[in-house]
Amino acid sequence: MFSFTIRSFFQKLVTLFFISIISFLVVYLAPGEPSQIDPMNPKFTVEDLQRFRQEFNLDKPLHEQYYLFYKNLFTGQLKSWKDNQPVLDKIYERFINSLWLFIVGTLITWCLSFPIGISAAIHRGSFLDRSTTFIAYVLISIPSFFFAYILIIFVVKTFNIPVIGMHTFGMSEATAFSRVMDRIWHLVIPSVLGALGGIALLSRYVRAQMLEVIHQDYIRTARAKGLPSDKIYYRHGLRNALLPFVTMFGLILPGLIGGSVIIESIFAWPGMGRMGYEAILARDYPIILAINFIAAVLVLIGTFISDLLYMVVDPRIRL
Amino acid sequence: MTNNEQEITDLHQGMTEEVSRFTAAWRIFKKNRIALWGFIIFMIFFVVAVCGLILTIGDSPVLDPAQVRLSEKLLGPLSPVNTNMVKPVDRPLFNVYLLGTDDLGRDVFARMMQGAWISLTVGFVAVGIAVLIGIVMGGLAGYYGNVKINFMQVISMTAFFTSLVFLASGQKEMALNFMLAAFFFMILSAIYYYLVVRGSISFGIAGFLFFDTISVDSLIMRFVDIMLCFPSFFLILTVVAILPASIYNIMIVIGLTSWMGTTRFVRAEFLSLREQDFVSAAKAMGISDISIIFRHMIPNAIAPVLVSATIGIASAILTEAGLSFLGFGVPPPHATWGNILSDGKRFIFDAPWLTYIPGLSILIIVLAFNLFGEGLRDALNPKLRKK
After folding, report:
1. Average confidence score pLDDT of chain A
2. Which of A248, A294, B288, B362 is the most buried (most CB within 10 A)?
3. Interchain proximity A265–B243, CB inside 8 Å
4. Any idea what DSSP says for residue B147?
């Protein structure tokens, strides 16, 4: 087990090295330099351009730029091109905001998917099963921003509650209770939207897993010896069906960034996805690159954790 | 005697009912009503998209998606043309705006028809690229997976790619150096191959340069792992935003970032097919590798690829819509459902049809593709076919 952990760790390190190269190349090899964003701007003289290039190491050869970029990233000296603030501080600040969305969204996803998936599997072919299956496909197929607009209009019109941003402007005078409620409303709507796709996928997966387990011999044995059906499904069935979800627990980590760009842009939520989008609009390369890199690192950490968890949970696997 | 023969033929027919793979799959597929609806909507969409292409191209198309009529802006669906304000040439078909007009007075019906074709093209080309890469990579990993790459080959490939990178970044001198190095190492490899592998001359101590490093299989699968680490939508957004805006770039970028699933499927299929008797028989008959792969293995491995391609088209259409929403979609002269929707969102209270028509259209088409894909997965599943 120890040797597996070490080996897996080094494999991940090698992968990380290649990820660093690819994410660097994707951004830096693109046609057009950041210093040429605004060639028509009369305030941007040739000297300015020269200084800009020198300041951000753009005049150096590519491999030196690569080295300097990652050196600065890891030592925390990397600066945003737009406002000259340290990239890591900016990302950290936004990361905390995204984390809220992520935690609430994940809780909603996991709390809803399991009951839905399990009951769909137990009552296979029933109206409940068929309707949840269909709704799951609708949720996967609907463009998230279209659904977001429908939901915003619905919530704003029926409950008269503003949902854009992290909190309503000018609430500092209000009572603590209404402030908290305001925050919760602002948090719940984007989290629900972010979670919908996840609920659809996860509940389908739970259903498939549960179906597979229900047809095993030991379930038939349990039924034959006259156990109550709740005990069969939740004690004998669910425990075994849960196994693959241990790995998924590690794999949800990257959802922190990837899925949130559109939702955060619509809700003006100052999170990481939105920061990435703003950085893309401003061609702020260090931030784009750092976000891509951090997202990939999160995936690696997630797979590493899930490998370890799997090994702990499933005694058959001792790689 | 004849009775006996009759019996035998009866028995024969009863035992082996000759059913082609397609018919068998269709029989299962037909029973799945939701998937059948998906397929029907898919076919209708295909016809609509082709009609959309025919009706909207040319200098004076039947439906002109780009015709601006500022006096007619934000009219609701089914509203008639104001004949006093619009010249006869500029009027829409049958003098009625079937799906209303947008903020520039353009006919939404015409734009939707054009968008249907563009969305279909984006989906098909992107998935086509992904499937092509997936089959090649998966095929290589599955069929030639055991081949080891030696150290010299690794060096020469690294030099080659480094040279390409320097070339792309405009440092020609470095590019040339690395290219020369790559050629030098390649020639060394070739010499080694002919002298040592084909002939039997020992390289002596220099042989250490040719030790085996990594197998083709693990090289490709590690690359797949690396690509899977990137958050796909953000990566697509980054690349599309950096590259000049064009419909081709979007298709290519979506294609280049979504081939990993196909690679895994094809590799898995190839790994199991490679061990089967008919492949061994083909090899024993001296049929070339290329022929074995393309004539015998790919047709047997294509089922999961088809399924993932169908679902891939759905997600490519969604991705394009998402990109359009963020302002990096297909650029203006072309209308896509994504950019009709993202243009229309500003008028969601005054002209809700500008949001709901493209939004619901995307929903229905993507849903149809997903349901069709799932039905196909069940129909092509050999486990289900036997039941």
Report:
1. 81
2. B362
3. no
4. P
State the Cα–Cα distance between residues B321 and B358, nearest whole angstrom: 10
Alpha-carbon gap: A263 to the closest alpha carbon of chain B (Å): 10
Cα–Cα distance measured from residue B127 to residue B121, given in angstroms and rounded to the nearest whole number = 10
Mutation pick from A28, A141, A205 vs chain B, by most beta carbons of B within 10 Å, is A141
SS (H, E, C) A215-253: CCHHHHHHHHCCCCHHHHHHHHHHHHHCHHHHHHHHHCH
User: What distance lies between CA B271 and its chain's CA centroid?
Assistant: 23
Each domain of chain A, given as residue ranges in start order, spans 89-276+310-318
Q: Superfamily for A89-276+310-318?
A: MetI-like (1.10.3720.10)
CATH class entry, domain B21-66+106-384 = mainly alpha
Are the Cβ atoms of B322 and A145 closer than 8 angstroms? yes
Chain B contact present for A23, CB below 8 A? yes
pLDDT in tens, B236-262: 888 888 887 788 888 999 999 889 988
All structural domains of chain B with their residue ranges: 21-66+106-384
What local confidence, expressed as pLDDT, does residue B130 receive? Answer: 94
The closest alpha carbon to A203, from A234, A233, A241, A231, belongs to A241
Burial pattern A13-25, b for ≥16 Cβ within 10 A else e, equals eebbebbbebbbb
CA end-to-end span of chain B: 36
CB spacing of B325 vs A145 below 8 angstroms: yes
Per residue in B60-72, is it b (16+ CB within 10 Å) or e — as a string? Answer: ebebbbbbebeeb
The span from the CA of A254 to the CA of A271, in Å, is 14
Q: Find the mean pLDDT for residues A152-176.
A: 77
Tell me the pLDDT tens digit for each residue of B332-367: 778 888 888 888 888 878 788 888 888 899 999 999
Contact B266, B133 (CB under 8 A): no
Of A164, A194, A200, A304, whose CA–CA distance to A257 is shortest? A194
Cβ B238–A288 below 8 Å, yes or no?
yes
Does the distance separating the beta carbons of B363 and A138 come in below 8 Å? yes
**Chain A closest CA to B139's CA: distance in Å?**
23
pLDDT digits (tens, 9 = 90+) for B50-65: 888 888 776 666 667 7
State chain B's mean pLDDT as an integer.
80
Closest CA to A78 of A17, A24, A9, A4: A24
CB contact under 8 A, A30 and B234: no
Q: Nearest Cβ partner of B234 from A29, A138, A257? A: A257
One-letter amino acid for residue B119 of the chain: S
Check residue A150 and give its pLDDT. Answer: 87
Residues of B in contact with A153 (CB under 8 A): 348
What is the CB neighbour count within 10 angstroms for residue A211?
Answer: 16
Q: Structure tokens of A318? A: 């001792």
* Residue A136 phi, psi dihedral angles, 5° rounding: -60, -45
Burial class of residue B190 in the structure, from the number of CB atoms within 10 Å of its CB (0-12 exposed, 13-18 middle, 19+ buried): exposed
